[in-house]
Amino acid sequence: MDSLCVSLCRAFLLFVCLFTTAAESFVLSGPTERLSQRMRLPSGAGAGGGRQKTTALQGNGKKPFEELRGELETFEKLRKLDERVERLSERGTVFLSSFWCETLSSFMIAPLKSATKPSVTSTCLSVQAILENPSMWGTSVQWEDTGGEKISLRKATDTMRKVAKDADWSSAVYRFRTPYLVSTLSRMVPEGELMKDSKFQEAIDTLIEQRPHLSFHRKQTLSTYQRHKNAMALLAALESGLVVQTDPRHAELLFGVERVFTVSFDELCRQIAFWHAGDNQNFDVVMLAYSLASYVQIASHPIVKEQGRSLPPMNLKLVSRALDLLFSVQKEDGTWEKGEPIDRYVAGSQGAPPTAPPKIPHDSSAASISNPVPVPVRPPPVEVRRVVPSSPADPTAPAEEDDPTAGVRMRSSKEIGNSYVFFVDLLGEIVKALGEKEPELLAPYLENIERCVEWLEDNVLQEKSPSTKMGLVQGWRSNHLLDGGPVAWCTAQAVSSLFSVRRLLKSLLTSCILDEFGGAHAASEGANSGAWTQLLDAELSLQGSQTSLKGVLQPRLLTPMMRKMLSASASLLPREKLKDYDPICAALQSPELAASQFASSNHPPVYSLILFGPPGTAKTTICTSIAKYLGWHFVTIDTAQFLADGLGNVANRMRYIFDRLKCLEKTIILFDEIEEFCQDRENERLGMESRMLTTAMLTQLNDLRRKQKAIFIVATNRLRTFDAAVTRPGRFDMILFVGTPNLSARVSRLKGLLSNTGMSEEKKSEACALVSGFMEANWKETAEGKGGLRFLNFAESDVLLKGAVSEAVDGRLTEASLQTSFEALRETATIQGAVKEEYVSSERMSRV
């Protein structure tokens, strides 16, 4: 009988695999329009008015942004939506802060005067919301407890650690709380402390044990929502280095994440198949959404790619189909149907989830992603039923925290399965998963996202509370709860989702602008100092003293801006965690020392500067190196951009361009050779129209600087032709002369060229000494017109150095050959005659 049961189980699992494969094949084959044509709500489906969206995809599932712009709302509408989300986000930070309880050092479900225990879920979600966008919390939240009015995240973290020490990870309540605690503490507590915390390590073990089992098919122990949260918690632990690669649990942890990926992929295909089959009983929008979020986040996570087994690449066509379906069943008010409860099963007499089979070794062939069906162990027969939910305010709140005066209904831990996902969190997880990696896939659904924003705008609740400073608390409450006041965990999820939506909108706005003007996106790896390090430095005379261009830009532009970007995170986290959380620190060799250096810098951030100098002095290269160092976008605006609509429409075109530039954040904007729009208005030969254009340009530049969201640089060869109002102090933060590479930079370049040859070290040293000595001897120009090697620009200097290296390799390098090459370059040099005179007179015009 047992062998017959095993055979039947195997046959059933084979059928499931074939069904899943067929569903995937159906979804991924045929014309793209098939899904959108059939995506109609069957009668009685209960979802209302979702708009059909169809995306014509290329072979890789992605659409060029040039075509995508036609599907976006007008630029003005997109910008207005971004402004609405920004205002709502700012209000949300104030709302969430009002739930802080100083007495209990935690965020409360509602600011109840009689509360005696901290709310774990509300505190974890609130802290995570704060970490989503640290720059929004500088005035109200900090790490240290200084005894002031600011919320101390150290105190909140200590509270969560105390709760974790007394936690029963196997209980139904902590089945819900565990991923929140692991995710939050992984981000807040140094890994050295958590690695020694046996109770916290037990929590990670619990998450590993709760991984999905393929033999359970659709009767998994955890809901789709809980599987997603568990996977994100395990990834947070991996990111923080809490389980090192030499630890045997590291492979088990990765295996658990990969299992979520496999089950999520299967469920994603299955839900699409259910929908097309008209199976409304089995189709579940919550299972679709969180399977999609898990699939995307795990597939694109760098740690999984680098340290885990080789997972199939993310299928963008499948993701696009899932998004079509998800937003087609959205209701007119922006919400979705309830879907699967957060906890699918009720313990005790009401039924139990399947019992987990024996552990499958992580290196077993049965655990392979490519062969995801192990020999099943038959689970014990159980009766499983879904629970008709009530409407609690906090699915983890113990009954003794009940306070009817707050309008928040609590329930015992046995009723944990009665709560439903707040639809705002559903949207937030989808936007977070795709907003950074594939934002263009969400662009066709901006109207759907706007509905959710409208719901949040229209459903801000407020309630009197004597326990708060203002006597009033505001926020949001899940659409699945009974009537009542605002709730902390709902407000925290709303704030986090708004931050994700705003990042998406900013990404789409930035892509649209950069695409239109031919700009370059920031590198995916973030800040990178490599290009700046390789940049050749130039001499600079500043206020009577000799320095260098990089010697001024580093402490006055780069370091203050890095300090500003880092300061938001630095004030919310212990210093040991900065390298894990902030990508800026990850790009630096010594995050702790860098943070200390930034904190001690006295120079304010620079948002505007003029780089002037003769042609060929690498002004554009300097700007691109700054962008790479900061990890920012880069765009060039030249005269041709302003003349694109003709001479008669320059003023309108100028407004059009600057309206878009003002929307950019973390971008280096280079205005290249725009002298025609900055001419001296005192010049009698200048017409009225040119004077008005100069005035308009000054106004636009001033407005752009006031935004303090991007750095703009004006590069010019003719600073003297600029209007006095352009160069006066206060208009630009710095005006710097860009000359030719200095002697030490040229010697460094020479050594780099020699290092790539096959010569012996002795011959390299001899060649370096000969060429360096020649450059030093001929550096300055004599009264007789001899020398003047310093006037060779980068390209000309490179010709000289590469020629010298080539002669050194061939054994023909002599001082005479160097002199001959130098004289030939002098005859065709860029800087000679009047240009040289201008060069010398301009060297002392720099100011900061």
UniProtKB/TrEMBL annotation:
<dbReference type="InterPro" id="IPR003593">
    <property type="entry name" value="AAA+_ATPase"/>
</dbReference>
<dbReference type="InterPro" id="IPR008930">
    <property type="entry name" value="Terpenoid_cyclase/PrenylTrfase"/>
</dbReference>
<dbReference type="GO" id="GO:0005524">
    <property type="term" value="F:ATP binding"/>
</dbReference>
<feature type="region of interest" description="Disordered">
    <location>
        <begin position="39"/>
        <end position="59"/>
    </location>
</feature>
<keyword id="KW-0732">Signal</keyword>
<dbReference type="InterPro" id="IPR027417">
    <property type="entry name" value="P-loop_NTPase"/>
</dbReference>
<dbReference type="GO" id="GO:0016887">
    <property type="term" value="F:ATP hydrolysis activity"/>
</dbReference>
<feature type="compositionally biased region" description="Pro residues">
    <location>
        <begin position="373"/>
        <end position="382"/>
    </location>
</feature>
<feature type="region of interest" description="Disordered">
    <location>
        <begin position="338"/>
        <end position="409"/>
    </location>
</feature>
<keyword id="KW-0067">ATP-binding</keyword>
<feature type="domain" description="AAA+ ATPase">
    <location>
        <begin position="605"/>
        <end position="742"/>
    </location>
</feature>
<feature type="signal peptide">
    <location>
        <begin position="1"/>
        <end position="23"/>
    </location>
</feature>
<dbReference type="InterPro" id="IPR050168">
    <property type="entry name" value="AAA_ATPase_domain"/>
</dbReference>
<keyword id="KW-0547">Nucleotide-binding</keyword>
<dbReference type="InterPro" id="IPR003959">
    <property type="entry name" value="ATPase_AAA_core"/>
</dbReference>
<dbReference type="Pfam" id="PF00004">
    <property type="entry name" value="AAA"/>
</dbReference>
<protein>
    <recommendedName>
        <fullName>AAA+ ATPase domain-containing protein</fullName>
    </recommendedName>
</protein>
